[in-house]
């Protein structure tokens, strides 16, 4: 089976599972573990009050996603610059 066909079948199976069980049942444990990672990062000794710990974990998570967004922008800019250089090189080759 080709990779695209397998990927499509896997996506369909995943969507059927979510439709049957609900998104919370399918991804709840993973989302909780992801959130716990940030809570443990900001308060490894669990000494902060729960509300403060949650607020700091939320800030750490936002910082994480902003970092990912910054890296994504940089990657898109690099790809665009490379495409522009390839286009210029092709134009030069055609002019020869």
Draw up the topology in text.
Layout lengths: L2 H19 L1 H20 L7 H46 L1
Helix pairs in contact: 1-2, 2-3
Question: Can you walk through the features of this model?
Answer:
There is one protein chain. The chain is an all-alpha fold and 96 residues long. The protein has one domain (3-95). The protein is 89% helix and 0% strand. The protein is built from 3 helices and no strands. The protein has helices spanning 3-21, 23-42, 50-95. Helix 1 crosses helix 2 (23-42) and helix 2 (23-42) crosses helix 3 (50-95). It is flat. The model has no long low-confidence stretch (mean pLDDT 95).
Give a brief outline of the structure.
89% of the residues lie in helices and 0% in strands. It is mainly alpha-helical. Helix 1 (3-21) packs across helix 2 (23-42) and helix 2 packs across helix 3.
Largest sheet: none
What percent strand? under 5%
Report the count of strand segments.
0
> Number of helical segments?
3
Fraction of helical residues: over 70%
In terms of structural class, how would the helical and strand content be classed? Answer: mainly alpha
- How many domain regions? 1
Distance between the termini: 45 Å
> Globular, elongated, flat, extended or rod-shaped: what is the shape?
flat
Rg over CA atoms, rounded to whole Å, is: 22 Å
Q: List the uncertain runs.
A: none
User: Would you tell me the overall average pLDDT?
Assistant: 95
Q: Give the H and E element order.
A: HHH
